[in-house]
Amino acid sequence: MTTTTPQASRTFIKSKKHNRPSAPSLAAPALAVLATLAMPLAYAGGGGDDAPELAADARLPQVHVSGGHDRSVQGPVRSSSDKFTAPLLDTPKSVTVVTSETISQTGAVSLTDALRTVPGITIGASEGGNPVGDNLFIRGYNAQTDTYIDGVRDSGSQSREIFAIEQVEVVKGPNSALGGRSSAGGGINIVTKTAKDTNFSNATVGLGTDKYARVTTDINRVIGENTAFRLNTMVHGNDIAGRDIVGGERWGIAPTVTFGLNGPTRAILSYYHMKSSEIPDTGIPFNNPVTTGPDVAKNGGGTPFTVDREAFYGLKNRDFRDTRTDVATVDLRHEFSPNLAIRNVTRWGKTGQDYIYTQPDDSKGNTVRYGTVWRRANTRDVDTRTLANASSLTGTWNTAGIKHSFNVGVEFSREDTDRGSFVFTPGTNNPLTGNFNCPNAGAATLYNCTTLVNPNPYDPWAYTRTKSPTQTTVETRTRAVYGFDTIEFTPQWLLNIGARWDDFSSTLNTAATNTRARVESTFDTYQAGLVYKPKANGSIYLSWATSATPPGNDGGDGLDALTVQIQNLQPQTSRSVELGTKWEVLPGGRLSVSAAVFKSDMDNARVTAPDGTTQNVGRKELKGVELGLSGRITNAWTVFGGYTYLDGIIADNGYVNTGTTANPVWTASPFNGNAFPTTPKHSASLWSTYAVNKNFTVGAGANYVDRQFANVNNNKYSPSYTRFDAMATYTLNPNVSFQLNIQNLTDKLYFDRVSSPHYAGVGPGRSASLMANLKF
């Protein structure tokens, strides 16, 4: 989905989200509105009489890139990334861009908030090997490590803030040609705020329910003729509506300096620092189906238990999460001419987090058999240090009447992760059983077992916490070379091609257990797309792309960790075919609409082979449809929405042992043909605002998310839901305005995070916040 802001400058792009029908009727209103608004797609002209036919010798409007992220746009909208060598209207990919305006209107205060309504993206729950943080899934594939800042990979698990973000760009489909090692689903590029050539001073002060308090500042000053300084700051704190114990606080600062504002050479120096402290959420356990023993008749439906929405299974005096992030960047750009520029980016970063969070573990059937929950302590003590350098050359040239817009470059990076855990005295097992069976709860279990109904987070759990002497270090090195070219044969026909070669190595070492694993892998990835422009305001495209996910893709800080068992395997490779169309319709092209159908396959997924070893013999298949729209129906009425259909199938899940450990019998997985976990079949959203007059604007939004399975077994899932939000703004004078946001207007109980087979994350209840936006 590609979306644009229908303003005269047409500087940015806009967007929105969400998945399979348990109760499809809930989605009907939102889908009906989306279908109505997307009707311009029904007639190929799109723009009607205002959209001119392209003459044989016509030249399309071009974008002048002045350097860095400050782009002066005359014509079709472009992504901030130089790797996109054509305007997004003519880019043969599904791309969604969430602008700062959209982030502000919806009241988002984190990256996951901003992405909550982007079609095709879902949020995963944390688990043993999956750290707390931005656990994102794009088109059904884990994209936890596929986040970039200004085009450079941002490693290390973390929860990202939005106070220093200009916009967020989401690229759907295989992303390796653009970013290197990645999932088959896509990637997310964060565009940061940088110093500009005008003076301004902005601040936002917000208060709300559930102890919500937030203050941000954004100050820009021009120093002399060619230099500017910008400072963004943030202080934030809040509890989570409906979750009682859960909440926290954070603060951040992000200064940037830009040299060479008006010359051919530009240097942007920036630093980002953020710290947070919170009690992480756990959610509610699934009603775990019991398949053996006397309690088989107690099978639930696999949905989360029906308990009080505030049920919290953690411990107030044990659970915590502390994070810190520091990123320093030097971004250099020089324009040799209007048609040729070179850019070099060097980035150093350090991210870390320590946490203990209680997972309501149901793996022994305690919940069904005894009505109890084992308080499993998931812990982490991790630091990731990164150093990356990327150089690229961007330009245009004409040869034999054919125009080329190209970008070529090289990238180098180093990532070092130290990962450990915490240990407790006494331990976390039930002392009455010596394990995590919990036939009873309370003081006799040292409060390691609690009741399913009405757990007490203030139980006096006494412990001594120390860091485990067992620490794992992972060193990851990458180098890559790539090239992209948009070839314009005629104004009606364009060809986009791209290729990348990666050399990836990763080494894992756990000294305490004398465990060592190493992977060395090289791989090539490609993309190609043919674009036909029947009119200047529209395009029809057919594209193909590949991706590669080597063992240890996460650099030691996620689910795709390197192990001895997988170190010799080849990268998992995927390919995708997409047919789509994009149009700018209504007079002046003020409404953007897009549609795409796609199919992707992963042929060599890692699964258990017939001999019990891990091999590249699995297969996954995904097909889907995506619609999007954004813009103005009238000067006062804006709309912004999307719909995604995803049908993901685990075609070959390998083999399982149906015998014993001593005498294994390997048979084909019974889960072959099951749906992807964390992949709602249907998702839809609509956000709309209406300016009642020049001072008063109202807005409302609806999000529908279909059922999501939490495991490949497909016997645990979160139900579908529809959530409604509302907003109103009032401008008192040019320097003061107020904004009221009400999230989850109907106080809907819903579950917005799955992927752990043990529990589902509870979505926030109804909350309200009032912000004062100040200019001075």
From TrEMBL:
Membrane topology term: Multi-pass membrane protein
Primary location: membrane
Domain TonB-dependent receptor plug residues, every copy: 88-186
Domain of life, source organism: Bacteria
Keyword Signal: yes
Domain TonB-dependent receptor-like beta-barrel: 287-745
Region (Disordered): 1-24, 65-86
Similarity comment: Belongs to the TonB-dependent receptor family.
Protein's recorded name: TonB-dependent receptor
Record organism: Massilia consociata
